[in-house]
Amino acid sequence: MTGIISAMQEEIQALLNQLENVSTTKKGMREYYCGTLFNKKVVLVFSRWGKVASAATTTQLINDFNIDEIIFTGVAGGIKEHLNIGDVVIGKHLYQHDLDARPFYNQFEIPILKNKYLETKDTTNLLNATHNFIDCYGEFVSKTEAEVFDIYAPKVILGDIASGDQFISSLEKIAHLNKLLPTTTCVEMEGAAVAQICYEYNMPFSIIRIISDKANDNATIDFARFANTIASNYALGILKNYFA
Ligand code: ADE
């Protein structure tokens, strides 16, 4: 069974409309919709916004539903010039851009391994940190654009994604992120939290992000318009092709 998460109902509504044999379970203030989507058994849930909400939802999915993969689908703010609204990013590495526990860990380092600084008091060791990001290892990473998507006009790229509990809507913040995490293609608020939980439970996962805005001054308007109109149709098209 595949667990499918979005942050908002708007991002998943088109999938809910197609879901058959639906049964609903309520846990932790969220509805989990089990059913069949394109002949595949799935459980759909919207996590709500942010890393805490998406981590809690992912943990619940893994522990209480019999799933063998997780797909997160939603929108993101593109921060590279060549990425336009409507393009799609398949997550490659997931960063938590607001995670900074220096000097105990490197900037962005996810506290998974033991705290080397507290053990050794030696800051040189910190440079060998291996958990600044989580690698995506779901099905999507190994497929080509044309295999995965039945859409050819928008670009589909494999790229690094940075998550944080912030809606980014300023050129200064984009410049700051580009300096600190230069491979980042887009920003959102959940993916890296889902990635960390999946890593900790050894659960295959994919993060798919459709660019709804360019994280600039116009981001709030673009984001709302995109999320309310076509975001979930993208999710529908992408998953239809994936399950076919
Ligand atoms: N999700 C969609 N657009 C976003 C943005 N600009 N910042 C954070 N999360 C987003």
TrEMBL record:
The GO molecular function terms of this record are: adenosylhomocysteine nucleosidase activity
Instruction: Quote the pathway field.
Output: Amino-acid biosynthesis; L-methionine biosynthesis via salvage pathway; S-methyl-5-thio-alpha-D-ribose 1-phosphate from S-methyl-5'-thioadenosine (hydrolase route): step 1/2
Provide the alphabetized UniProt keywords. Amino-acid biosynthesis, Glycosidase, Hydrolase, Methionine biosynthesis
Looking at its record, which EC class is this enzyme?
A: hydrolase
Question: Per the database record, which ranges form the Nucleoside phosphorylase domain?
Answer: 3-241
Give the enzyme's EC designation: 3.2.2.9
Matching entries from Pfam families are given as:
PNP_UDP_1 (PF01048)
Q: Any keyword Hydrolase?
A: yes
Q: What InterPro entries does the record tag this protein with?
A: MTA_SAH_Nsdase, Nucleoside_phosphorylase_d, Nucleoside_phosphorylase_sf
- How is this protein named in the record? adenosylhomocysteine nucleosidase
Species name: Lutibacter holmesii
